[in-house]
Amino acid sequence: MARQNLQAALGREAVFSDKGAKPAPSRPATDSGRGATTATWEETHSRSTFHLSRELRDAIAEAAAKTGRSKSQIVTDALRQHLKLDSRG
Hints:
By secondary structure, the protein is mainly α. It has a domain at 48-89. It contains 4 helices and no strands. The model has no long low-confidence stretch (mean pLDDT 75).
């Protein structure tokens, strides 16, 4: 109910995280296995919030359920392909 009230107040679709969403894991990078830790995953990534159509949101959720990949992985790969960026990151 609160979600619908907020959406009505904003006058547009509001995007919410799933209640069951897990925080991003910590993924420290190491320097060639020598034990020297470089930047952590959190230091090289950031959370972004943006609006999607419900159709696109549902398609991403469906793809995640079918493939076992996270919604973030699906969106990241699609944006990298669209922007012609390499797969590092």
